[in-house]
Design a protein that fits this description.
With 136 residues, this protein is mainly α. It has six helices and four strands; from the N terminus they run αβααβαβαβα. The longest helix has 20 residues.
Length: 136
C-alpha cells in the first residue's frame, strides 16, 4: 500500500514471479469494471472487492499480491492483509483528494523507502521466508 506513484505496481511486477503469486492490481480492477469512483463509498467497495478476490485465491492455496492505495485505517481493516508492505517513497501524489485522506500506517510488516523494486522484492521475499507460515 502507498500513495499513487509510490511504486506499488512496479514492486508487484517483481514480487509476483518470485512468489509465484496471483496479482490483484486495483487500477486494472477499476478499469475492467469501468468504475473510477473515488468517493469514500467507492473506495470501500474497492477494498471489499480486493478482499473478496484475494480470498478466492487464498482458498486455492495461492499467495496473493494486492497492489492498491488503501489510504485509510478503515480501508486497511476492510482488506485485512496478512502482510503489509508500505511504499513510503513519496510524500504527495498527483491526486490531491487521495493526499488529503491518506493516513500513514502505524502497522505494517515491511517499509520500502526508495525506488528499487528489484532490490526490495528480494528483501521482501527473504522476510516472508523467515515467517513460520510461509511455504515456498
Amino acid at each position: 500500500m502507498g500513495l499513487p506513484g509510490a511504486g506499488k505496481t512496479t514492486l508487484a511486477s517483481h514480487l509476483v514471479p518470485l512468489l509465484d503469486a496471483a496479482w490483484l492490481n486495483a487500477d486494472k480492477l477499476r478499469s475492467d469494471e469501468n468504475n473510477w469512483d473515488f468517493s469514500e463509498n467507492g473506495r470501500e467497495v474497492q477494498a471489499r472487492k480486493m478482499f473478496d478476490l484475494s480470498n478466492r485465491f487464498l482458498k486455492k492455496k495461492k499467495i496473493v499480491v494486492a497492489d492498491f492505495v488503501c489510504p485509510t485505517p478503515k480501508l486497511r481493516k476492510i482488506f485485512n492483509a496478512d502482510f503489509i508492505v508500505w511504499m513510503d517513497t513519496i510524500k504527495k501524489s498527483r491526486f490531491q483528494d487521495t493526499n488529503k485522506i491518506f493516513v500513514e500506517p502505524e502497522n505494517y510488516n515491511f517499509k520500502v523507502d526508495t525506488f528499487n523494486a528489484k532490490y526490495w522484492s528480494k528483501k521482501i521475499l527473504t522476510e516472508l521466508k523467515s515467517l513460520q507460515n510461509y511455504k515456498s
